[in-house]
């Protein structure tokens, strides 16, 4: 049995009282985490703020958020769609933030009109970019080594098959050379890969160390040309109106037959039908994605019939290192807001 004296009374209160039934006092700063997914975001944040009982962290089912959002000062959106209707109810809200970088689910204009700041946690410095780049390596190797076929061989008691491939000598096209792309380029060097990349604007300096990791640089207008030069394309773009379904029929047709496609950014960057059809025709050599067109991903989706498809459950950035780092950012923002101090560690978008 657990010694009752070792149990924090504040923890006991959290377990016994539903979030919307707690007392709403002005001396408590309340943080709302939307929905059950990515559970360690709220678990680690609770761990971090445990010494501060005036910071209250709640997890609310997605369907209940519109009803209770009026009671909170900070909203961590996760995968929630915060439209103008929900935001208009957030009468005490000071800041809407993401546990990471993606804010495509937030109506930023509506938040601005309601006097609410919107921010992301930069991937640089929190370990998020490094974690995502490692997942890209994992997915590339999984496809090259034919992970699904290897499992079939194990189950069939077969040795020496399938014949895989290496990152050595491969040309990897990083589509979107931001923080994650930079971390990925660093990790590809020891594998002996050639790195090409595109971004909208490169630094003017010729001695920029991050740019020097790339063997060939291009702009967004070069993406089809670069797709045709690559053995592997890794999608690292942010999702917005300009980038939605950028990897479409034209893009995939520009890729070499048998080339691999990896996505560790957002599912909406790839057109599903184009990906499916090119897997079926054999033009695509394989797809590895940590993000899907709809999430949670349907385990019965027909795209899973292909042996050369690897899907992971949106866990590229979900590592102990990155999640503890981002929990500290959220906790510090809550403490700063409570004390009326400037908010640090986040990147405002409005």
From TrEMBL:
Keyword Oxidoreductase: yes
Organism: Eutrema salsugineum
Domain D-isomer specific 2-hydroxyacid dehydrogenase NAD-binding: 138-316
D-isomer specific 2-hydroxyacid dehydrogenase catalytic domain location: 65-332
Record keywords, A-Z: Oxidoreductase
Oxidoreductase found in the keyword field: yes
InterPro entries noted in UniProt: D-isomer_2_OHA_DH_cat_dom, D-isomer_DH_CS, D-isomer_DH_NAD-bd, NAD(P)-bd_dom_sf
Pfam families: 2-Hacid_dh (PF00389), 2-Hacid_dh_C (PF02826)
Name of the protein in question: S-adenosyl-L-homocysteine hydrolase NAD binding domain-containing protein
One term of GO molecular function: phosphoglycerate dehydrogenase activity
Similarity field: Belongs to the D-isomer specific 2-hydroxyacid dehydrogenase family.
């Amino acid at each position: 049995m657990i010694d009752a004296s070792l149990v924090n009374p504040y923890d006991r209160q959290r377990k016994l009282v539903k979030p919307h039934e707690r007392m709403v006092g002005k001396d408590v700063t309340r943080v709302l985490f939307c929905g059950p997914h990515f559970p360690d975001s709220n678990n680690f944040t609770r761990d971090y703020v445990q010494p501060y009982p005036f910071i209250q962290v709640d997890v609310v089912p997605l369907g209940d958020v519109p009803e209770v959002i009026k009671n909170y000062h900070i909203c961590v959106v996760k995968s929630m769609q915060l439209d103008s209707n929900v935001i208009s109810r957030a009468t005490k809200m000071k800041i809407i933030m993401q546990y990471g970088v993606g804010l495509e689910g937030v109506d930023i204009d509506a938040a601005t009109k309601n006097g609410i700041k919107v921010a992301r946690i930069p991937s640089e410095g929190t370990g998020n970019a490094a974690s995502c780049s490692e997942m890209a390596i994992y997915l590339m190797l999984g496809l090259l080594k034919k992970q699904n076929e290897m499992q079939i061989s194990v189950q069939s008691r077969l040795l020496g098959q399938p014949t895989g491939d290496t990152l050595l000598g491969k040309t990897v096209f990083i589509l979107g050379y931001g923080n994650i792309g930079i971390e990925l380029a660093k990790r590809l060097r020891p594998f002996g890969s050639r790195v090409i990349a595109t971004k909208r604007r490169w630094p003017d300096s010729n001695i920029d160390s991050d740019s020097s990791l790339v063997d060939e640089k291009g702009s967004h207008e070069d993406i089809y040309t670069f797709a045709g030069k690559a053995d592997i394309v890794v999608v690292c773009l942010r999702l917005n109106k300009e980038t939605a379904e950028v990897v479409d029929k034209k893009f995939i047709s520009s890729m070499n037959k048998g080339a691999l496609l990896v996505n560790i950014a957002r599912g909406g960057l790839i057109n599903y039908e184009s990906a499916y059809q090119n897997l079926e025709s054999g033009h695509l050599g394989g797809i590895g994605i940590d993000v899907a067109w709809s999430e949670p991903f349907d385990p019965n989706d027909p795209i899973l019939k292909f042996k050369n498809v690897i899907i992971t459950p949106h866990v590229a950035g979900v590592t102990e290192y990155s999640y503890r780092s981002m929990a500290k950012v959220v906790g510090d923002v809550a403490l700063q807001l409570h004390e009326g101090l400037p908010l640090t560690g986040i990147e405002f978008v409005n």
